[in-house]
Design brief:
about 950 residues, alpha/beta, 10-stranded mixed sheet, 3-stranded antiparallel sheet, 29 helices, about 40% helix
């Protein structure tokens, strides 16, 4: 907090007013005299990212420096997305320190130049605290900050833009140009086309106007061309039309008709998957469409009365329509193709802080930023799991005080960024500098709720979410008032002061009447109440520095950067996740939030282990041993057997919305079996509950996505299957065991893993690779020794039946259980288990270099060579051809019985998960509705109203 001239408060302090001494910054995490970089363990890693479709390497940078606590995924994404400079050049960033310094030092310098800090010491504390929070993944700025700040290119910091267009050809062509420049920079924009006269109105020359839908075609083609001309993601754009526009029905139908075209072309044999060769012939695919409805229309729907469509030129009603039929048409279109979404105009403008300057008519592409035309918003999101704490007795609490201090720090930094930021158009720059719109938000809400034992769709879960959101926005506006005391209110404040103060009181009133539920949310509500009281008091005296403070964004790429389990306001995707491992490989793990939730719910350690084991095997909690059925809901997820209902998502949005300046980026998912009536219910209840915007997606409603490969395979199989009457003789092939001769070469290795001693004898075929393994542990008769005996027999039989050694290596390396730890083998210094050690040793002894290198397994000599030369491979003169041939894996083809000649059947490649979405598909037998990533080929997952690739961090919208 801040102490202004009006009285004392906690935290950082400000003195004076405009032209005064600036803020005094309080330490939150750092220690005087110690730089945050000196408090973490740094390590070097290699980042090699491949395209899963063809195995090609699409990014490689070796020897990058990160804290050892950062996950492989976070390191990969930050290195590939945010490090600046040409790869391989001396200018290329290679350490997280360089990236954070590039940004933080720019912010500090601008803050000092514009009078934000009381002293150089306060500026240094600001620098250190901001560095600590970024270094420890407490929060992150939006992607444009990491792309641009501190570089020689324009210092664009905003991810969200709103444009405007008037009813003139000059304005329409300006729209195309401005939108194109924003797309070129990798951002997205939204606008409302309702000022353009309808096709039912006349031009001054006497002919009929083209109408906004026709001009959408040109903009859509432009977006598609710019996207394909240099980016690997679709252009992100939002197109809005008011419900009283005479062309609203044509607008609603645009994508429905195109979806019918996609189906017809697909059935004719054209490639209509997203990214397919023929999808470009389809129009209106580069934008999200939303209808802007008002209370008059929704009340007409409720009462079943008529509603007037109005001329754009005169405002007169030129046509009466049945409101309920028009609403039904919207729902039917959304049911068929997910568009249009809906925006609630009167609700949006009821919470508008600057109505004297102009109405809010549109949003950014993901629907969270809503403010004046020709404006922008820079975003930052906090990682909520960083504020969950456990005391010595195992009790949980949300650290509201520290959360508020971090919010103050981040809001201060975000406002400073506007002082030096560049903008894509002059009009956007003018509006943004005059109103200084900010969008602080959070990620990991779904993980936080599960970890604290709250069901996502529960009163307790909604109370905690509402309390945190209220505290965040209240603290942000309090800091905004304190900044106004130091560097002045935003330029547009004087004209809009009464409206701005009215909206602050609305937020405070909503906080007052909110329901408190339990020991977790009640203290957070208390802190939020105090913050809103300060907002009203300080705002009355100083005004506010920012017209807008908070939104809930998708947090796609930056959510991965912070190692968040869940994005934005979303619930967890599933209970079992896909995790990449250092050194290569991957494994599936049960979410870390599950044991925390079970502990919060009162389960003992033995029960927790049994439930976690059940989840690991089945992917859900149904029939988990010892788990009470009333606790099932805590573990409900976005996908799976116990998926959260559509209204559960709507209710969560309604819990957070009264405490946000902007809106929420979120798509409400419906099952494929959902009806049009259910879509109507979601859209109608969204209005009743006070949401600002809403979009739905019914599973498998769109054809133009590579989602239904499984279904297509099943259809092809069904088509190709012969009729029962024409049954043919089936020839079954069985593997044949190839036994070892009586005398065979072998290697015996003694080993120690985590203090447990053992011996491994690996016997080979004389000329054809490994054939059997014997494992003996030092403690004969123990359970471990018995299991190792049985395990070695099973592996040996598998090898003799033709199972390749590399298959065993890929399955059993990185398996974690005790005993684990240090070994006495110089080639394998650490092992996560005895099984992990055994198969690493076997790989080194029996697999060729190329095979095990792909699995991330190298000898000590090879690792040293990599440090010296940058390559694991030996120089040409060092290659022992004879040795490589001797250690090559044996051919595993078993002799086949003679059969009549016939065409060979092509066996599909075994299914392999490359991220959490694909893992859920495999576990639950589902097809997740998401496109494939254009960069790395893996299936993306929904993040807000956009899509996010876990593999490389690419998004389909704002980030």
């Amino acid at each position: 907090m801040t102490e202004t001239t009006s009285g004392p408060a906690r935290g950082s302090r400000s003195k004076g007013n405009k032209g005064g001494k600036g803020l005094r910054i309080e330490r939150i995490h750092t220690t005087p005299g110690v730089h945050p970089y000196d408090e973490v363990v740094w390590e070097r890693r290699d980042v090699v990212m491949t395209n899963w479709r063809d195995g090609s390497i699409n990014f490689e940078q070796r020897g990058v420096e990160f804290p050892d606590s950062w996950s492989v995924n976070a390191v990969n994404i930050v290195t590939s997305k945010y490090f600046r400079g040409a790869v391989g050049s001396p200018e290329r960033e290679s350490s997280l320190r360089q990236l954070i310094d590039r940004v933080v030092l720019t912010y500090r310098k601008a803050g000092e130049e514009h009078g934000y800090f009381a002293s150089p010491a306060d500026a240094e504390i600001f620098e250190h605290e901001l560095t600590y929070a970024l270094l420890h993944q407490v929060f992150s700025f939006n992607s444009p900050v990491w792309f641009n700040v501190g570089t020689k290119q324009p210092q664009q910091v905003s991810a969200c833009f709103i444009l405007s267009v008037d009813d003139s050809m000059e304005s329409i062509l300006d729209w195309y140009k401005e939108e194109g420049m924003i797309f070129k920079g990798g951002s997205g924009a939204g606008l409302n086309l309702s000022r353009i006269r309808s096709s039912k109105e006349l031009l001054s020359s006497g002919g009929n106007a083209s109408g906004p839908v026709s001009f959408m075609r040109g903009a859509d083609a432009s977006a598609g061309t710019i996207k394909s001309g240099g980016a690997t993601r679709r252009a992100a754009k939002m197109v809005v039309l008011d419900v009283d526009h005479p062309d609203v029905e044509a607008f609603i139908d645009t994508k429905v008709k195109e979806e019918e075209k996609i189906r017809a072309l697909r059935d004719a044999g054209f490639d209509m998957d997203l990214g397919g060769d023929d999808i470009t012939s389809v129009q209106y695919q580069n934008a999200n469409n939303s209808v802007r409805v008002n209370d008059e229309f929704m009340k007409a729907v409720e009462s079943g009365s008529d509603f007037g469509l109005r001329s754009r030129m005169t405002g007169e009603v030129i046509e009466e329509v049945d409101a309920k039929a028009l609403f039904r048409k919207m729902a039917e279109a959304a049911w068929q193709c997910a568009d249009p979404g809906i925006q609630y105009d009167d609700t949006i403008n009821h919470w508008h802080t600057s109505p004297e300057t102009g109405r809010i008519t549109a949003s950014n592409p993901c629907s969270e930023y809503m403010h004046l035309d020709n404006s922008s918003c820079n975003l930052a999101s906090l990682n909520l799991m960083k504020f969950l704490r456990d005391d010595d007795k195992g009790n949980q609490s949300f650290d509201a005080e520290r959360f508020a201090k971090v919010v103050e720090l981040v809001i201060t930094a975000m406002d400073i960024s506007i002082c030096f930021a560049d903008f894509p158009t002059e009009k956007i720059g003018e509006t943004t500098r005059a109103f200084r719109q900010l969008g602080i938000g959070y990620a990991n809400l779904g993980a936080l709720l599960m970890a604290t034992g709250h069901a996502y769709d529960s009163d307790g879960g909604r109370a905690l979410a509402g309390a945190i959101t209220s505290l965040m926005t209240g603290t942000s506006y309090r800091r905004s008032a304190e900044l106004a005391a130091v560097v002045g209110p935003y330029d547009g404040y004087a004209r809009n002061a009464d409206a701005h103060k009215r909206v602050m009181q609305q937020h405070a009133d909503a906080n007052t009447v909110a329901v408190r539920m339990d020991d977790l949310d009640t203290p957070v509500w208390a802190a939020a109440t105090e913050a809103w009281q300060d907002v009203v008091r300080l705002g009355e005296k100083h005004g506010f520095r920012n017209a807008q403070a908070s939104v809930l964004a998708p947090t796609g790429t930056i959510g991965l950067m912070m190692d968040c389990d869940t994005t934005g306001v979303e619930p967890d995707l599933a209970l079992v996740k896909f995790k990449k491992l250092v050194g290569g490989g991957s494994m599936q793990i049960v979410n870390n939030t599950v044991p925390k939730a079970l502990k919060r719910l009162g389960y003992q350690q033995e029960q927790i282990e049994a439930i976690v084991a059940h989840i690991a095997e089945h992917g859900n909690v149904v029939d988990a041993p010892g788990l009470k059925t009333e606790h099932y809901e805590v573990f409900d997820c976005a996908m799976g057997e116990r998926a959260i209902s559509a209204m559960g998502h709507v209710r969560m949005m309604a819990a957070a919305q009264p405490f946000l300046s902007g809106a929420i980026s979120k798509t409400v998912n419906l099952p494929e079996s959902a009806t049009v009536e259910e879509v109507e219910e979601v859209y109608f209840e969204g209005w009743k509950m006070g949401l600002k915007a809403l979009a739905i997606y019914r599973d498998n409603c769109k054809v133009g996505q590579p989602l239904s490969a499984k279904k297509k395979e099943e259809e092809k199989k069904a088509e190709a299957a012969p009729a029962p009457a024409a049954a043919e003789k089936v020839v079954e092939y069985r593997p044949v065991r190839k036994r070892l001769p009586k005398g065979r070469p072998g290697i015996t290795t003694s080993f120690t893993v985590g203090g447990a001693e053992g011996y491994m004898t690996a016997n080979s075929y004389p000329d054809d690779g490994l054939g059997e393994v014997f494992l003996k542990m030092s403690k004969q008769g123990s359970t471990l020794a018995g299991m190792m005996d049985a395990f070695s027999i099973a592996v040996s039989v598998g090898l003799q039946y033709g199972v390749p050694l590399e298959t065993y290596v890929s399955k059993f390396t990185n398996m974690r259980f005790e005993p684990a730890g240090m070994t006495d083998d110089p080639d394998v210094r650490m092992a996560q288990s005895i099984v992990d050690y055994i198969f690493r040793r076997l790989a080194l002894d029996f697999l060729p270099f190329e095979t095990r290198s792909a699995l991330g397994i190298h000898s000590a000599e090879e690792r040293q060579r990599h440090l010296d030369t940058g390559s694991y491979e030996p120089a040409d003169e060092e290659v022992d051809v004879e040795g490589l041939a001797q250690s090559a894996p044996r051919q595993t083809e078993a002799p086949k019985p003679e059969v009549p000649a016939q065409p060979a059947a092509v066996a599909p490649a075994p299914k392999q998960a490359h991220n959490s979405t694909e893992l859920v598909e495999m576990q639950l037998g589902l097809n997740a509705d998401a496109p494939l990533c254009f960069s790395c080929g893996t299936k993306m997952r929904r993040a807000g109203s956009c899509y996010l690739c876990e593999g490389c961090g690419s998004t389909s919208g704002c980030s």
